[in-house]
Hints:
The complex is a heterodimer of chains A (269) and B (323).
Chain A: H1 2-10, H2 16-20, H3 29-46, H4 48-67, H5 78-108, H6 111-117, H7 121-150, H8 160-184, H9 187-204, H10 216-222, H11 226-240, H12 245-265
Helix pairs in contact in A: 3-7, 4-5, 4-7, 5-7, 5-8, 5-9, 5-11, 6-7, 7-8, 8-11, 8-12, 11-12
Chain B: E1 8-22, E2 28-41, E3 45-49, H1 56-63, E4 71-76, H2 86-89, E5 92-95, H3 107-115, H4 124-130, H5 146-158, E6 164-168, H6 176-191, E7 195-200, H7 203-209, E8 212-217, E9 220-225, H8 227-231, E10 245-250, E11 266-271, E12 274-279, H9 283-296, E13 302-306, H10 310-318
Amino acid sequence: MNGTGTAAGSAPGNGLAEAAGGRQHPASLLRRVLLQGKYEAITMLRNGEQLILAVVLPLLALVGLTVTPFLDGLGPSRVNVAVPGILALCAMSTAFTGQGIATGFDRRYGVLRFLSTTPLGRGGLIAGKVLSVLVVLCLQIVVVSAVAFALGWQPVAAGWLPGLVLLVLGAAAFTSLGLLVAGTVRPEATLAITNLLWILLGAMGGIVIPADRLPAAAQSIVHFLPSGALGESLRDAFLHGALNGGAALILVLWTAIAGAAAIRWFKWN
Amino acid sequence: MVRSPQSPVLSISGLVKDVGPLASLDGKMLRVVSDVSLIAGRGEVTALLGPNGAGKTTTLECAQGLQRRSGGTIKLLGEDPASAGADLRSRVGVMLQDGGLPPSAKPVPLLRHIAGLYANPWPVEDLVERLGIDTFSRTGVRRLSGGQKQRLALAAALVGRPEVLFLDEPSAGLDPQSRALVFDLISELRSSGMGIILTTHLMDDAQRLADYVYIIDGGRNVAEGTVQQLLQREPAVDSGADHVRTLVFEAQPGLDVSAVLPASIAVAETRAGSYSVTGALTPAHLAALAAWWEAMGIMPAAMSLQARSLEDVFLDISGKDIR
């Protein structure tokens, strides 16, 4: 309300009288979610460990896969096969490991409980987290793509639209999984689980190394993992310009199942 | 005793809260609050006093909408907090027992962020100055002292200019200076018409701040009244301690007060700089103490003499010590 706003502006030295006077209102829902998204994104980007996980390790993996012969014979060039998997790895870093660890410790320190008593509320808090993941993911896509182009990446132009949609679906699935872990176990366990799974799924989950280069036993299950589904479908998009509907469906299912489980079992304290 | 403040901000009636099922109870539920009722008014400080584990925090968290109650009714500013929206939350400030501040945050940016969630927040610069946060505005939360964290948590609870303020153990970890600052502000907020509800297990907090006290033990109300009313209760049993009085005073920490008084008088520094002198005090004891203060150049910041303390009242009611 303008009336109370003016009164506050004219007497900045005395906020006390105002406390008894005009009734407080929340900022708009959009503004609350945007503010929280911005705050969390900045917090993530200022955290050195998160930055290593989100940018440095994916770039090292990209360079590593480009100079070694692991991916030979799978496509027109090593870098073309490598980049989609690296983008998938970025989504897993930020949405699963990064957001999972941050949320786990926020829970430990009572930050989730405090913020849920403010106008932000629980819904706004989750929306802000999802937004921050998307913001950081966008920055990762820009940085990785820039380095990839310098290394000679030639994506199929028709792959961008399905590729970006799949990255959002992947981020949604990994965010749901990250929040499920963060909300149900101790933060130290969240740290261990999300880092371990990042390494395991990164190496053996079909994310950067295609399923047909993995041991036979792994091949059959990898397609049903969020890592395999996202890695495969991004390679289909950027190598062939195709939308892998089956993989997209698997990502949606992971989001739905992990999201429902998180809603059911997430402990705020 | 039925209480009807002019303008209640919070009323709780017959609150029940079960937690669990717990493996330690063979999968049964544990009842942590069995019957708590209270009313808190505008322009008043209402204290929930009781030992750790009495159910104070659980009661507060049900009122804040952080926990779902198992039974009873709660009205916060006329609404049920369990189904409250952003509108109600914008009118209520909460300071949690563990602070709820992200360790990596810096005080002023954090307060600015929280202020942005409200349409008409308290100007952050003003709040920062009032609570002395300007002296550590660039230090990360994880490196703040206990007192600094408490002041920041209080600022975070106040930045939305709430009509109702919840404080869970507000003096925990406060050094004497922070405590004076925080208590002065609480008194001032009360005068401005804010309804303040706090929990404490410290008798002197309640004695100094509260207009009305609810004593909670074992998940239920055991007594209530103004501090004066509670102190005037008849002792349940004649303890023979009619002549026992307690003198409480505040001065610089680390004084050896026992040196000037006979051994029959018990002296304790209950908190840094807060002394309690208990025994069959006579005018001669008070004169000796005053002469010592004069010789040492000590002027107490606060002083009170009581025939009984809330501690005694609690002991009468529950048959056990509050600590």
